[in-house]
Design brief:
Auxin-responsive protein; SAUR_fam; globular; developmental protein; mainly alpha; growth regulation; about 45% helix
């Protein structure tokens, strides 16, 4: 009987991979904030919401980090 290796990565490895690609996980509570709603509207107009792996937000990473740090 052969032992099969799982293709799943540990959660920490997955999170590290996400962060390396400048992807962020934001709390659901951010989605209702007017500041974030504006970004979501811009994202829908520019890129649409039909993505397999996340949502593309049309702003610089520094601006996004600043916004999300203020919303916490």
């Amino acid at each position: 009987m052969a032992i099969r290796k799982s293709n799943k990565l540990p959660q920490t490895a997955v999170i590290k991979q996400i962060l390396k690609r400048s992807r962020y996980i934001v709390p659901i509570s951010f989605l209702s904030r007017p500041e974030f709603q504006s970004l979501l509207h811009q994202a829908e107009e520019e890129f649409g919401f039909d993505h397999e792996r996340g949502l593309t937000i049309p702003c610089e990473e520094v601006v996004f980090q600043s916004l999300t740090s203020m919303l916490r």
